[in-house]
Protein 1
Amino acid sequence: MNDKFILTCSGCGQSFSPSSEFYLCPDCSRDNDTKYPPKGVLKAFYDYETLSKLKEEVVKKKFWDLYPLLKRESLPKLRVGETPLYRFNKIDGDPIPFELYLKDDSQNPTFSFKDRASSVVSAYAKENGISTIVAASTGNAGSSLAGICASQEQSAIIMVPKSAPQAKLTQIVMYGATIVPVDGTYDMAFDLSVEATKEFGWYNRNTAFNPLTIEGKKTVSLELFLQLNRAIPNYIFVPVGDGVIISGVYKGYEDLLKLGLIDRMPTIVAVQAAGSSNLIDNIGKPNFSIKPSQTLADSISVDIPRNFYMAQSFIVQYHGEHISVTDEEIVEATKTLASNTGIFAEPAAATAYAGMLRYKNQQLLQGKQKVVVLLTGSGLKDLKAVSSIINIPNAIEPTLEALKKIF
């Protein structure tokens, strides 16, 4: 039995013992309507009082006491996390008037941030003797789960909307997972995967459903704490779709606060595509309203932000900020990022960079401020999205004379 943590409802505050068959608070989720974000999403809580007395030991063990797992050996052999944090001083040749850091999570095994969640979910399933895991995905979570399961000798079943990018579907198939294209949206695939979980007894990896996904995603904050030598960033720009990544970033820093390792929360900026901004548009509103998503940033194209209530709670409690950027800004940010840093990010990741650029241009970032941008996926996952700005010239004759006409 795993007694390292308990699960607490982010709504009513009830606590529950963890179980591989337990996902949402039974009371708060009883009246959930699939047309709206679910209530009753759970958070993992640890013995912070005891751990705060041993906090330096916790740091030495790279925060293993804050993992919902019994054995490190349960994690996949693939290196997940410990991704590089790069400092850059110029954009388009101009000095940056603040400290800019890029956290490149495209260097995870399946080239996206989602491996952090998949690795923890897979390890927990392994410790509980579960061999089949299901997920709904627009591509990244699915390819992530498929790859991690392949390394763990587990079976993955991935339900995807038929519009998912070909590169991500290719990844899923190559990893040997069972892919189920759904004639509908991501939200429809999500609902079907939940029904299948109940019917077939599979373990479900869905974000804002399985609470351990947040525990996996929070590890980025713990890494930043170490990589920045315990300094707290002034700003962290996070791409936002269903609200789970940003909740994970908050959860990691909240854990550090509870251990007494930091004394304040960084300002975390939720950046959404203007064509898919249902999370930030509803913050503070009494009634949730939905507008159909339409953005080239498929990884954050969500009609119903499944982790809305927890994300909203974090943003309000810790005075977070939010902004939306257009698809044009996202594509331009992808190009600017790649040409200035050598990091080719997919549109969802470049969304966070576009948000940072907007803040920079509005002179909201100054002086010695430490600014972190989370880059959550590789641009190779969705080449079609940047096709409008790509111009590959025609072939030339293999002669020096032909080359001189160019140069």
Protein 2
Amino acid sequence: MEIDSPAPSAMEKFTATDLSSLREELLQSGLDSWQAAELISSFLNVRGYGVSHHAARGAVAAIESGTLTAMREELEKLAYVM
């Protein structure tokens, strides 16, 4: 029997792997806040969520410097279903 990693709960929209990848890209890419907001917007759009670009820019620092849990919470605040 194959064991899968735990599925995110109904409240969690993003996996730890997705969040880790996004955070690593934000930290390693040297993007300015506008570019980082674009990356966050793209991350959300690919997963079927929209986001205000203004809100994404406001969340960049919190997302880059927080834990994965804090990052997930911040993204969930930003994301809206399209």
